[in-house]
Amino acid sequence: MNVEFVVNDYLLAWNLLFRPSISEDIQKLKERLWKNYSKQYMKIEKENVEILKYTNDFIPDDDTIYNFIFNTDEFKIVKRQTDKYRRFLMKIWDSHQKEIQSSLKELLRFKVENKYQILVVHPYLDNVEYLKKNPKKNVVWGKKEDTEDGLKAIIRILFTLVKYEIGDYQSENKEMVSAIIDLLVSNEVYTRLSGFTKYEEGLKKLKFLKKQLYPYWLMYMGADREELVSYMMRDRMPFDIDKYPVEKELRKIDLFGFIDFCCNNQRYIIRLNNLETI
Question: Could you write out the DSSP letters of every residue in 232-251?
């Protein structure tokens, strides 16, 4: 998975103009622009889609607003802060890149050909988005909590990229697919990168479903009966091994195959008499 972290001036400016204001200075700037250039302001309301489609090749039909904001002190300050945030994310990613690539190769079992651009915006914008059907694999990224824990920030980004890669596969079973991606990234990859079990992490609404999938997930990773015990102890995720015959075929398929297995067998996997949460 090839990932690049960049700051796109047009996208940053658009987000400052149309997302909730990140400071009083930015709010005043928006009010000033609206007062003097309201028609031009309204005209670019949906240009974020075009910027995501074309990124470096994007050329606005009317650059009046952009030229104005690019030359303001307020924008220059925000851009410096955003670039510092970009370097922070990139440093954490680069320091774990070999482990990330190795884990993805082992757990996805298919080659990711796409090159992803993380279009970094100011973290206070608290915005993550992407276009599903876009030949340019671009993800807008800016999260407040990222600076509190850099490794966790990278895990959140990786979760988004894997979800983007899987796309609408088994779209009628969205929760099942999300739970599997959560097990892969938020739990197993995070555990490997941190050196401590992270199976308590992830989406809270999927905890019950992930618990049901967990034994099969271990089998997918290639665990035999003895290794199931080791994983349970590591992750503090107990289950009755005798009730789960080892599905050896799971270690031979890729993630799409595992998703199919779980979706096709969910009536047996989801055991409603076992309602504990992880």
Answer: HHHHT----GGGS---GGGG
**Backbone dihedral region for residue 170 (phi beyond 0: left; psi -120 to 50: alpha; all else: beta):** left
- Strands of the sheet containing 137-142, edge to edge, are 2-6, 115-120, 137-142, 127-129
Query: 125 vs 18, 93, 265, CA distance in Å?
Result: 10, 21, 41
Count CA within 13 A, CB hemisphere, residue 177.
17
Give the Cβ contact number of residue 48 at 10 Å: 20
| AA identity, residue 186 | S
Q: Can you tell me the distance from the alpha carbon of 89 to that of 87, in angstroms, rounded to the nearest whole number?
A: 6
User: What confidence score (pLDDT) does residue 150 get?
Assistant: 95
Please, are residues 151 and 92 in contact by the beta-carbon 8 Å criterion? yes
What local confidence, expressed as pLDDT, does residue 278 receive?
35
